[in-house]
Amino acid sequence: MKLLMISGDRSVLSGKKGAFWYTLQEMQKHWERIDIICPKRQQAQDRGEQVEDGRQKSIDDFSHKEHPNNVFFHPNPRGLLSQSSWIFRKGQELIGKHHHDVMTVHEYPPFYNGRGAIALHKKTGIPFALEIHHIVGWPIAANLQESIGRVLSRWVLPGEARKAARVRAVSVPVEQELQRWGIPSKKMCNIPSFYLDHELIGRISAPPKSYDIAFCGRLVANKGLDAVIDALRYLPDARLLVIGDGPLRKESENKVRAMGIGNRVTFLGWLPTLEAVLDAILTARTFVMPSLSEGGPRSALEAMACGMPVVVTRVGMMPEVVEDGVSGFFTDGSARDIVAKVGNLLRDEAKREKMGMAAKGVLQRFERRTLIEQYAEFLKDIPRQHHASR
Question: Is the separation of the CB atoms in 105 and 113 below 8 Å?
Fold first, then answer.
């Protein structure tokens, strides 16, 4: 069977071996062909790279010999304002040439993926799944933009779901919220997208501890890095490692300098592989992620799988996997509460080790091969049901 995927993720095109890269590495085993329509790579032209036959050419191209040859990227050569029309036009071309069986759509504001996919569905009749990994600004919006995104999602997503064959949620809280918005439970399926690689994690060995707190994620408002930095005011000896990049990096670095704690905070930026990320996380004693809204957070699950106690907010998957005081601590996200929870762990090495061992239980629940096989079967069942109903 052949899959057409509509995604906003362009990390693979940027040479990043992140979550999407690892997902595709396993997904390709279940499909004859996967075509991915996505936005253009940011700053691709500035780096002198070319797009040929719908595939981004670079030294980290997904088609290199360690990767499959049945996954093809089709980035929009123009900007996001034309993304819906690109999905519609390029999708028709691909479906006409390769005769895909099903389409899956990763949807979020500003909803260009859904608009393009629904137009393509009407034109070609190809059935599609709507995937909602994260409700922007829910449960708490970090700014006005997220507040608007949450309101728009409340009105747009149920309408798009009516046109979809199935709807995928990736956590129980998101599934329940979508049902409150009127999406029928019979149309929904809860399949987590937070895959953990047993083999990779088993190869990771804990290095000597150089930091007290690790933070890993895109540096944007909803992730809560600002509160973590504020917490260092009350943890005078603590050292913080920040893994990741994003629009708030410069602002965060300036804040650290203004607080006079530059010698206690290291900004690593993006790391090239998941293995490198996990190696870095494990140089710390605790992992902290006080997100306001979140689908995972994936990095917290990875830290738990490596045997680290986590301090997290009750967002995304966290209420389902963290047992408060056993495998981690829940925080309200304020700097003072982060101080209390992290301080508790830093003062008691035996407690950290015991909670870290309990945290490893997530490995069994989110084993990569099992969940991706379940995801592939969910998508393959859509055309079967579609043809059976005709």
Answer: yes
Secondary structure of residue 136 in the 3-state scheme: coil
Q: What fold does the segment set 198-365 form as a domain? A: Rossmann fold (3.40.50)
Asked if the model's pLDDT at residue 184 lies above 80, the reply is yes
Mean pLDDT of 221-242: 96
- Taking the whole predicted model, whether its pTM rises above 0.90 is answered as no
Phi, then psi, of 204 in degrees rounded to 5? -80, 130
Domain ranges of the chain: 2-195+367-388, 198-365
Give the chain's radius of gyration (CA, Å).
21
Sign of the torsion formed by the C-alpha atoms of 176, 136, 363 and 324: negative
CA–CA gap between residue 188 and residue 178 (Å, rounded)? 9
Q: Please write the tens of the pLDDT for every residue from 309-328.
A: 999 999 988 999 999 999 99
- State whether CATH 3.40.50.300 applies to domain 2-195+367-388: no
Residue 390: the pLDDT is 64
Residues 242/165, Cβ–Cβ less than 8 Å: no
